[in-house]
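REQUEST FORM: STRUCTURE PREDICTION
Request ID: SP-0412
Submitted by: Lab K.M.
Chain count: 1
Length (residues): 390
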Amino acid sequence: MTLTTISMHHDLLKRKMNMKLAKSISMSFAAVVLSAASMLPAAAQTDSGAAVAAVGKERDGQHDFDFELGSWKIHLKRRLNPLTGSDKWVEFDGTSVTRKVWDGRSQVEEFETDGAGGHIEGMTVRLYNPKTHQWSLYWANSKNGTMEPPQVGQFNNGIGQFDAMDTLDGKAILERFLWSKTDSSMPHFEQSFSADGGKTWEVNWITDQTRVASTENAPPPAQPQPDASIAAVVDREITNAETQIVEVAEAMPKEKFDFSPESLNVSTGDYKGVRTFALEVKHIAASNYAIWRPLTGENFPKDFLGGNGPENLKTKAEIIQFLKGSFALGHRGAATLTTENFLQSPEGSKSTRLRLAQFAVEHAYDHYGQMVEYLRMNGIIPPASRQKSD
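STATUS: Completed
RESULT:
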């Protein structure tokens, strides 16, 4: 993937945040999720996998989350407007039920709360990686249906620490989960954010649990249908990316589809050879076809897969149709995900099905940022910004 100079500031920020995050996480993020629905390319996993395995090989953490099995009453506190100096909190209550799958190597927690945001249902999926001896935590709620970036970590001396990179109000931050009192009937959970690379942390979410039934007596959730949930959450991610990227593509006038910053002759930057707007759109679509094709096993012309797509697609209408077709493939791919196969690798790929489904979305968003810059350079307000200002 080639990034233009336009997004170098964004790439630099990510590298800085990654370096600081590495100080608080004992191994690389790519290797941590090697076989547990990782979001990064397989090559990165291979490079650091041996080192990660060496760190965690002496401790088997497969049963670290056994304390969560069963039914709970939960009391929650949430800080309003985190990282703004606000000390206003809201409190509310809810319930949760956690059950194990894969003989305890994974867990599914379903929860319900009634608070300031109304009635919310959600799901947390915890995946244990026997190679790294670490857990990856994924969660989504019914309010937005979005799978959040995974928290990755493990328990040491009774404290569970799980870290991730995220964004808040468009700015990169570090996010940390801490579990404590897990040997009691009232486990304690805190979520914290850091905007300075981990130098300081602000707690913004606190959950205290009270067990209401033993693991053996915990009633199973009524018809949870986990297969549909996994497919639906991933499909929502694809829909969100598709909506924003197609809107930006349609916002650029057809006579500007061949625009690139090279034509501006800007003296402060080297834009020689960067992609035109049309090639940005075609590159996203071609990459979608290449990444998602293994999920469905469909056959496409060779020039659909990767690079900049078919050379004969020249007009705005043709290019946008190519883009929409690639996202249609993504929806078909998401529909194939089940609890039985989402951590398996499809034929012809070393990556898990879930990683393929998610990685195409991440790649598309990388180039979405460049497309937005191209609109701005032509005096066009991106659709997402217009909606926020209305």
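NOTES: The radius of gyration is 22 Å.
Reviewed by: T.R.
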